[in-house]
Amino acid sequence: MDVSHILDGLNDAQRDAVSGEEQAALILAGAGSGKTRVLVHRIAWLMQVEGVSPYGILAVTFTNKAAGEMRERVQAMLQTPVSGMWIGTFHGIAHRLLRMHSKELGLPDAFQVLDSDDQFRMIKRLLKAMNIDDARWPPRQVQWFINAQKDEGRRAKHLAAGADPFEQKMIEIYTEYEVICQRSGLVDFAELLLRAHELIRDNVAVLEHYQQRFKHVLVDEFQDTNTIQYAWLRLLTQEAENLYVVGDDDQSIYGWRGAKIENIHRFQKDYPKHKLVKLEQNYRSTSTILNAANAVITHNDSRMGKELWTDGEDGELISLYAGFNDQDEARFVVDRIQHWAEQGNLRAEAAILYRSNAQSRLFEEYLMMSGIPYRVYGGQRFFERLEIKNALAYMQLATHLENDAAFERIVNTPTRGIGTRTVELVRERARAQGISLWQAANALCEGVELSGRAVNALSGFIKLMRDISGNLKSAVLFEQVNQVISQSGLIEFHKKEKGEKGEARVENLEELVNAARQFVYGAAGEEELSELDSFLAHAALEAGDTQGDKFEDCVQLMTLHSAKGLEFPLVFMTGVEEGLFPSQRSVDGIGRLEEERRLCYVGITRAMQQLYITYAESRRLHGQESYPMPSRFIREIPAELIQEVRLNARVSRPVTAEQPIGFRDESDAGFRVGQRVMHTKFGEGMVLNHEGRGAQARVQVNFDAVGSKWLMLAYAKLETM
After folding, report:
1. Which residues are catalytic?
2. Is the pLDDT of residue 657 over 50?
3. pLDDT surpasses 80 at 511
């Protein structure tokens, strides 16, 4: 049989991976090495050369998009439908199994699948029914606990808490949750995988049926599998040893959500006769970029080892820029993107990558100032994020108690025992009397309609808002914002959320304080407003503008985790500093530090042509001014691959004993560092810094009465003294 068309266009390693014998195989596929191409060609080879029926092939991946793409490419290559082949995600395949075998599992035929939001709401109802205080036992934390146990294959009956009261309560909730789900015919996402594993583990006939049917099981992104997924695959393939997996141990970056890099090592022990193929030729990036990625990742000890290479050009050196602060870093990145677009390149071909979601705010701000549209990939813009909108709602209500929208949003956030019936009574009173929700709530607390418990809860909220409102009067803006966030309980509320989501929410709230500190009062000529009202108006306007739509040519902003699987001609990897990347919580543990390094490897290999690495010499992080060291990952890149960018900057650096080259001692408007000035509202102060030109010129003044502020010179009306 002529099989040349199946192997056409493949390199030697890819040909070896595609045309191997019917046996277990581990294909270590480096970034940009054509792993999907190999999987598609392998399926075609099995069907056309080995004569395998499409009914005998099971192909599993992690996203519906990847599964759909794989199916389309297989059908295009074979020029025939492959409807009998099972191609899908782990959850999709598991759901199909559960539908076909609901009786064996004791599930109703019409069982319902709970998505993450549905599961969360159900847990909230369960806690209420069990009279459990959801302030002490946050629903998000309960949800995380239950799903984490299921991902490890553990039912509530398998857990023993010992003397730990926290774990005792969690197991109690998990037990009741299982009872309700079984009684109601409900299956959450983690349950899909656990049930699929239990189905074939506990039913010999079912297991033998699928072992005989699926002669070949192929898995994409194998490094992202968790404990229960690998256990399920192992059961299906342990007899025939017909498991074909494609993955990259150097791109295993999801340990925080249950992925087990150990599964690659376990595979080699469980399938001792497996074939190993390394795909190292990269078709994405320049040689310089690949050499940098190789140099960084070699510092990880627990890796199988491979080295990316390309027969393409060396390309440009990696550009390294040190901003004197995080604002300078953002300005530099946006300036380079603007230059890139002016050269006729698409904005959508440029990506800004960052370790923490909170870092997006400054980039968003400077992109907006430059009129450059952008999209936050896989997430929301800073001022649209739930925790930010909640914090802003507290400020809106504290300054304007008649704000019904703000009242509705935060009356029970964080949860404080104000039930839906109480809120409905407040609404009814407001509608009936034509008054605000705030006035209605006060009136209800003085009446007899509410129970004593409801009155206590609602009165507690009213007192909290009065306290917050009273504390705002004497503080400067960033202190006002910090006080509101602290008094509201939002920080503690989100700290109770397990995993990266809770940490990201806390970081975003801390970044909101930074936004207030850096806010330029009077920039839009709204000095008739208080500074806080001006800041709230600024946040509202930023939340509704400049976010490019799906089809617009706009800059891409994303976390390094979100960037996996994507590629861009121009990439900025930002905030590459000790304590931020690698993150502070990772530097004390070898395993977590190695995962951070893999994340750096992923970031570097997103770049096709140009890579900029940036860091700041000073950064406001977690509410504190810090002076971080450049990341160890920068030091791990050979010096000959890097060029440092040194600008004859228009931007001045902070005052120091020795001013750096390029420091401009006087602004365009004639103000100089150290000069005393007068402002009509803030009083006397001293000029600390200045930057920009023309309409964008601004000055930093340390006022005697209210501290440091940045002011736009076009609106500030400063007088020299």
Report:
1. 35-36, 220-221, 251, 606
2. no
3. yes
